[in-house]
Specification:
Radius of gyration: 29 Å
Number of helices: 11
Helix content: 10-25%
Structural class: alpha+beta
Shape: elongated
Largest sheet: 10 strands, mixed
Strand content: 15-25%
Strand order of the largest sheet: 7-6-5-4-8-1-9-10-2-11
Distance between the termini: 106 Å
Length: 659
């Protein structure tokens, strides 16, 4: 078959100027066609915005007409999870992984994650797929370097991690309600140049970011682009421009949200004016829940209603955040879903939309949710979410069920954000569909669900890790073991001593003078469980907070200085008559269902159960046994775990008895 070709003879020759314009037009048409084949992607990420703090998520005091319209035109996700603190949340978004998996410089697990320069980011993926990439706003994934002109190591900054353009703050904007309450002043950078050495107030920041974003979109709209707009607001110190200051019914905090809503409206208007609206996927969400503390006035922070908790906590209010997804013509308007999805799922989802490649050897924790977002299926590809506070695993959600693990207040290894973590004395189970406020523990009614979810917990500990262990899938690019930043800073010189608790009765087990006091090993081999050791080798600066010299430790071997978590077994106390209403003791070691102390009656029925806190520190447990007075009972120390804090420490038991 012959094709028609334009022959450039003298008779029908086209002037070179016209020919050049024609070729340019063809190239432009081809470029736009390629761009249309790959959607533009915008992620709008707010800072410390609570689950409740949008009109479309229930707020009656904060006006968000543009975001409400975004929800009406797109998909509202009501079980969307980030992480409970700024840095780890941004790491999860950028890498598609739980932060505990992500490699960091020198193998130090920072409280604010610093992805290793060899880690692979969302921006690098999209840049390799032909996208223009920009971060406008807060980065907070960098390592300090006093010798660098910016004060931060260049290899950990946005321009080295896949972003063509960066305008914003390297880290957070402050630590106090008002700027003048602290010596800290954040700089603002444009790429690797400091353009504002010290920000004195934050009133102009949202407007600045909006202008930068619109200007950048105008310059790059002829090719596929990825814009990560990471607002500093509403993190304290809050700020708003004169058009928004003192306008919200929700005070200064509400002012910041209403200006962010205006900013979103400006971006949507620009997309429409450039004809990009139907080829642009926009995701709006927050990095974590609201920062709520006594020193922060309530009108300077948000709310997570109806959820329990706040930023840095292990409850849903810490990591469950509002999320809206909009893509006209692709995502059906007015959709709403309570399916579980996370920021980690955005990277593989964007890869599918952008036809981008991910390294075959790279393990991601995110799932491709492209068909779910487009409405081709009602089911999210994700069926579980693990709750981590730093490196401490605190629970798991599967469907409507959430399992919460026992933990002590302000757990070791969680550093400055541990102050926001409350104690949980026993394993708890909640149905989040019926009880989003996590107020009704139904673990006893559903032991099968607890057991099923504990299997997920064990898998997470093995694959991802926990406060006491590195997971088999954790990435390390530098030599040496994993170290916790919080261990170096806050635990290193913190000695937990015996609490001098007053006995609650006349019957005591203190094991002094190397006396087993009638306790026996009834299963396994634990001949050296009675010990007078003072510390574990890796925690020499944190001695056991035992009552005297001797106590029980299922991981003890006389032949080695280290604890041996491979040992398993059961140690049983003598039987005694319970005559008083209280039982008190110290317990440490593992927090799982396979390492615990339990009290049983003469029929073998378990009356109470407690476990450790994944650390060398023993916690004080006091049981109210009013319902069991008059029963003959015995204690069992159960250790069926062979790894990590897979042991139990026990000391200083007391109760009232006639025996």
């Amino acid at each position: 078959m012959m094709t028609n070709r334009l022959r450039l003879t003298r008779k029908n020759a086209i002037p070179l100027q016209i020919l050049g314009c024609t070729i340019l037009a063809l190239l432009l048409h081809t470029s736009i066609a390629v761009a249309n084949d790959k959607p533009n992607i915008i992620v709008i990420f707010t800072d410390d915005q609570g689950y409740h703090d949008l009109g479309c998520f229930g707020s009656q005091t904060i006006k968000t007409p543009h975001l409400d319209q975004m929800a009406a035109e797109g998909l509202r996700l009501t079980s969307f999870y980030a992480q409970p603190v700024c840095g780890v949340s941004r790491a999860a978004l950028m890498t598609g992984c739980y932060p505990i998996r992500v490699a960091e410089p020198d193998n130090v697990k920072h409280l604010h994650t610093v992805p290793h320069p060899q880690e692979w980011t969302m921006a690098e993926m999209l840049k390799e797929a032909g996208y223009a990439t920009a971060l406008i706003g807060k980065w907070h994934l960098c390592q300090r370097d006093r010798k660098a002109s910016t004060g931060f190591r260049a290899a950990t900054m946005p321009n080295a991690q896949g972003f063509d353009y960066f305008y914003g703050t390297p880290q957070f904007n402050g630590l106090t309600t008002f700027v003048n309450q602290s010596r800290f002043r954040s700089p603002i950078l444009r790429n690797e140049e400091v353009v504002v050495p010290q920000v004195q107030d934050w009133d102009a920041i949202t407007g600045d970011y909006t202008r930068e974003a619109i200007d950048w979109i105008e310059k790059h709209h002829r090719q596929p682009f990825f814009l990560y707009l990471a607002h500093n607001m509403p993190h304290i110190p809050v700020g708003a421009s004169k058009n928004f200051k003192n306008k919200s019914k929700n005070g200064p905090y509400g002012d910041t949200i209403e200006e962010i809503d205006w900013s979103c409206g400006q971006i949507f208007a620009k997309l429409k004016s450039l004809g990009l609206d139907e080829n642009t996927l926009v995701v709006f969400t927050s990095d974590n829940g609201p920062w709520i503390e006594k020193q922060i006035p309530r009108n300077h922070s948000g709310t997570a209603d109806p959820l329990r908790g706040w930023k840095m906590s292990a409850w849903d209010g810490g990591s469950r955040v509002p999320c809206i997804v909009r893509w006209p013509g692709k995502i059906s308007p007015g959709r709403e879903s309570d399916e579980v999805l996370t920021t980690m799922d955005l990277l593989p989802t964007f890869a599918a939309f952008a036809k981008a490649k991910t390294p075959k050897e790279l393990i991601l924790d995110g799932f491709d949710a492209s068909e779910f977002l487009l409405g081709k299926t009602d089911n999210s590809p994700r069926d579980e979410y693990f709750y981590y506070c730093g490196c401490l695993l605190t629970g798991v959600r599967v469907g409507e069920w959430k399992l919460v693990l026992p933990r002590e207040k302000n757990p070791p290894g969680t550093g400055w954000w541990g102050r926001m973590i409350e104690a949980v004395v026993k394993t708890q189970l909640f149905n989040l569909d019926k009880d989003p406020g996590e107020s009704n523990d139904i673990a006893r009614q559903h032991p099968d669900v607890v057991q099923r979810l504990m299997q997920r917990i064990q898998h997470a500990r093995q694959e991802l890790g926990d406060i006491d262990r590195s997971g088999r899938g954790a990435r390390f690019f530098d030599e040496g073991p994993r170290r916790l930043e919080a261990t170096r800073r806050s635990i290193k010189n913190r000695k937990v001593v015996y609490d001098n608790a007053k006995p609650v009765g006349n019957y005591r087990f203190t094991f002094e003078k190397e006396d087993w006091q009638g306790w026996k090993v009834v299963e396994g081999s634990l001949p050296d469980a009675l010990t007078d050791r003072d510390t574990l080798p890796n925690f020499k600066s944190q001695p056991f907070n035992k009552q005297g010299d001797w106590f029980l430790f299922t991981g003890n071997r006389k032949t080695q200085t280290r604890g041996d978590d491979s040992q398993v077994g059961i140690i049983e106390s003598p039987t005694f008559l319970l005559k008083g209403p209280k039982v008190s003791f110290l317990i440490g070691g593992g927090s799982g269902n396979s390492t615990y102390v339990a009290l049983y009656d003469s029929d073998g029925k378990q009356l109470r159960k407690a476990s450790g806190s994944n650390g060398p520190t023993m916690r004080r447990v006091v049981w109210n046994m009013s319902d069991s007075i008059g029963k003959r009972v015995k204690l069992r120390i159960v250790d069926q775990s062979a790894g990590g804090w897979g042991h139990v420490t026990f000391d200083d038991f007391s109760c009232q008895t006639d025996d």
